[in-house]
Amino acid sequence: MEHNPPSAWLTEAASVAVQQGTGNLLRIVLVVMVLGCALTAWFLLRGYRRKDD
């Protein structure tokens, strides 16, 4: 197993993104953002359902 520095992975990912265009990357970013917002909302709002009687 060869050792690749993190910068090599980043440059490879950037070159693949340039070849494919920004469509796939934008879709992934949007899906991750929507899922992150949904999980954050669930985490913050789950406490309001409980009653503190």
UniProtKB/TrEMBL annotation:
<keyword id="KW-0472">Membrane</keyword>
<keyword id="KW-1133">Transmembrane helix</keyword>
<feature type="transmembrane region" description="Helical">
    <location>
        <begin position="25"/>
        <end position="45"/>
    </location>
</feature>
<keyword id="KW-0812">Transmembrane</keyword>
<protein>
    <submittedName>
        <fullName>Uncharacterized protein</fullName>
    </submittedName>
</protein>
